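fold-stage: in
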Amino acid sequence: MILNALEVDPQRREKGPWRWYEQEMLDCCRPLSAVEKVGVTLSEFACLARCNGLHAEVVSPLQTIDHQRALRKFREDLKRANTTTGTLMALSYSRAALGQTGDGHFSPIAGYAEKDDMVLILDVARFKYPSYWVSVPDAWNSLLPLDKATGQPRGYSLLSLLPPSDPTSLAAPLSLTTLSLNKSSWATLNASFSKLLLSFAPSKPASEVLASIFAHLATLPTPALTARASSTASLPPLIARLQPTRLSALGVDSDSLAPLLIIALFSSTSNLLPLVPTEMREGISEMVREALDVGGEEVVKEVDVLKRQLAALGECCRAEEEGAQCGCSSPGAGDKTCAM
């Protein structure tokens, strides 16, 4: 609902010529089958937002902070979401705390009546509850019950579009590929890559290191990177641009999309590159730069989309390892804010 309200292009068609988001498209952080059974946490919600081109500022209420100070920040953020074009708020709250049936739920905020201190919740389960007004203190208190999956309070997220100048903005040509990884499978794959990289002797040639990464990707039960259904005609020419490069030659027996993923994995902002021994790091970076130069603007844009998805998955995993909600901002406790 929020992605459609902000007019984010899903980069694929829903039905016929229409390009609107539907829930089946939100599969970058956890398998949809798992989401249908147990839902998502606030950190995973932020991960989904980040994967789909939004800036997500997440606030999780800590029960030890001053209640009145927390309420003041909540009201400030409600006013911000209600008066700032292109910014919306979503609540992760307990239905039971509002006297409703059920437990954890997500819904966007549709309005804020500052004079009456009331907030309008646009319930996404309209078959169960229509939109309804609740007092701001009641809305805040509905965020406090602990999420059974995380052991943390719930919270809310302020969502806005990334500016077109941001390299990870979706205000760009449609991507041709997409990661088939989710939060869990990425954590496993990232750990195996890290272990592999740390096992190499410093004298190992960079080409052998990358060849090992290609070989590891080839052993996965399902490809980590897949082509979008709409890219049948456009993708082969893009892949062909990379064929003359040394990087592509190392993965000659791998999936044809593997070089794109390797470039994203070993970009200058990657968390894997620092694990590579210094002696071979420049050799890997040189091959990545060569592939980007030869591939041209279209390859650069494609890799930027993959880097955004990898960053979102990595941020979500790191936040949960630290026992926090993803991008957690704690009102009244320093107000840390994480830009997703």
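fold-stage: in (second)
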Amino acid sequence: MTEPEVPPPSTSRTSLLALLSLSPSSSLYSSILASLSSTPDAPPTPSTISSYPDSVYYNYHALGLSIQLSPTPGSTYKPPRLASASRADLEEDQLGVTQVDVYNHDEGAKEAAGAKEGKKPKPSPFAAFPAFPVSLPIPSLSTTTTSSSTTSSSATSPSTAFPLTPKTTGKDLVLALGEPSRKGGGAGSMGIWCEWVVKNDAKGESVGVMVEFASAGLQAWDKGGESVWRVVSLFAVEEGGGQ
């Protein structure tokens, strides 16, 4: 399988935050995805759909995106359990986007994480995301406290945007977003990950940013600063801080 080429970053930035809470049946949802497609007049359809009682996954392989949907607040709808579903199987007006995952195909993202020594990682079914840089919400400079070693941020801080590219490293993200509120991984073949919660000015709600890096095994955290990201997830944060 030939690895997809990584498109060069454009001069404009792509914001995926507007997808959060949208129904997949809405015109805005279709419009946002169409703007990422090479054929904007024909909104892309999911390559695969996996459905579970609490969440549904729309995988857009050609766009390098996976979108998680859940029943909207107050809804009693429970999606059917289907490993291979179609849109006709679902009540899309009862679903809203709760998470968007973007996959990286830069050479640096193919290293160690998820692969044992001497074995190559399995080829990803996802193509390279076509619209870098992606805007990530970050705390504004006026509400971010910086010291010589750390940058702390609050989920209630107003946000600006950081341009995520395929070459962005762990160090770049910590400098922009501050120290993560949660982090883990690095044991065995598991890649390290970091998570931040930042207020999204566009909707006045807090959003989560979770990043998995191409750094695993011994000294994974020591190498994490120079490692590029493998997957970035933007997710809705419920009142009280939960996803």
